[in-house]
Task: inverse folding
């Protein structure tokens, strides 16, 4: 689950992590009032969407308007805000469709000495969280990793003990901090790592992390996402979810207990098991087509879930055929076919449907499909299924 920058900074502030003063605004008049309230000579007006690259992004309706702007008066703040609110911001992470800006965050200007990069992720090889820092703040970390990998510093830390002071000092010295900045890092970095663990984050990124002229670290930006599987422990965080920023089909699938990710292809996939779903998408691509989605119905899907899965898949106008790939282990194949046929009647499938089954009672299930009188194409194995569903696109 992702949240907005202003929400992330509110949580960070409560955790004792230093962030600039800022005010959330929903109108141009509120932005002007926020500028006056912050009381500085300069302020920053920031678009709030679930995407990075906002500073370099541009609005479809106003190509010269950036997604993040520095302003020096209330009038200038209001003028920029009027163009930004309600307009569609396109960044490197949104794709060409962009995202509509409905909220702005006005933040105090700072006297910045340096910009740095900071990120925390879970590293599978390490088997725990890793703090990542770089002197190249404000840049995409992927670009830094490609062009200057030596500028990326990593420091694994313990889940229970957190980041030790000596680890914070080591990173600070490697980044060339003076004594004042090192002391700031000793406070800032362990608190941020504790925030990551305490809130079951999957990613926390501060880009840029700034070092002010008086030697203090502050989170100038904040991008935070949480592990969906841990949200039962954080009911308060669920209130921060912004459904307007999420794919409507993915939200609908989540409500039905389905794992679904929308993609750009034309072959819909209905599969049980995440690994099998990935393999299904791979083999579709191998045979020259593109999957329209990842969809895992799980090992115990019922008729209602299968029906909803079909509805979600077919709601995508790009879908020209559907491949059902089921391994009946926990659930018998004949039970799956019963649910499939009932869902077929409920939904009314009008595109080619290819079904591949394997597992318990598979022979009985295949007989049921052969004798059902529906326009369903059966396949003997995964390769056969991929060939048939790809061929159906040109039939």
Result:
């Amino acid at each position: 689950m992702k949240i907005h920058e202003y929400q992330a900074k509110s949580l960070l502030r409560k955790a004792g992590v230093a962030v600039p003063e800022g005010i959330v605004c929903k109108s141009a008049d509120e932005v002007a009032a926020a500028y006056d309230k912050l009381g500085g000579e300069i302020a920053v007006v920031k678009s709030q969407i679930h995407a990075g690259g906002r500073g370099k992004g541009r609005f479809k309706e106003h190509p010269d308007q950036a997604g993040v702007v520095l302003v020096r008066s209330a009038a200038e703040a209001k003028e920029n805000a009027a163009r930004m609110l309600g307009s569609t911001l396109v960044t490197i992470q949104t794709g060409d469709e962009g995202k509509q800006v409905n909220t702005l965050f006005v933040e105090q200007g700072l006297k910045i000495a340096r910009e740095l990069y900071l990120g925390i992720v879970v590293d599978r090889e390490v088997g725990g969280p890793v703090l990542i820092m770089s002197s190249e703040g404000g840049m995409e970390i992927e670009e830094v990793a490609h062009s200057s990998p030596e500028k990326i510093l990593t420091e694994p830390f313990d889940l229970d003990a957190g980041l030790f002071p000596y680890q914070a000092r080591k990173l600070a010295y490697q980044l060339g901090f003076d004594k004042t900045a090192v002391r700031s890092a000793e406070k800032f970095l362990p608190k941020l790592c504790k925030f990551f663990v305490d809130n079951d984050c999957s990613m926390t990124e501060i880009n840029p992390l700034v070092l002010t002229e008086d030697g203090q670290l502050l989170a100038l930006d904040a991008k935070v996402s949480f592990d969906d599987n841990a949200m039962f422990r954080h009911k308060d965080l669920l209130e921060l979810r912004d459904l307007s920023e999420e794919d409507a089909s993915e939200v609908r699938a989540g409500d039905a207990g389905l794992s679904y990710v929308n993609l750009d292809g034309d072959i819909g996939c209905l599969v049980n098991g995440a690994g099998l779903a990935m393999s299904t998408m791979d083999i579709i691509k191998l045979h020259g087509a593109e999957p329209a989605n990842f969809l895992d119905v799980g090992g115990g899907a019922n008729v209602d879930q299968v029906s909803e899965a079909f509805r979600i898949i077919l709601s995508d106008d790009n879908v020209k055929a559907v491949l059902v790939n089921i391994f009946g282990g926990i659930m018998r194949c004949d039970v799956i076919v019963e649910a499939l046929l009932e869902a077929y009647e409920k939904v009314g499938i009008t595109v080619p449907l290819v079904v591949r089954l394997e597992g318990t009672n598979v022979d009985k299930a295949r007989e049921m499909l052969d004798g059902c009188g529906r326009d369903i194409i059966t396949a003997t194995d995964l390769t056969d299924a991929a060939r048939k569903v790809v061929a159906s696109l040109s039939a």
Q: What stands out?
A: The two ends are 41 Å apart (CA to CA). The first strand starts at residue 22 and ends at 25.
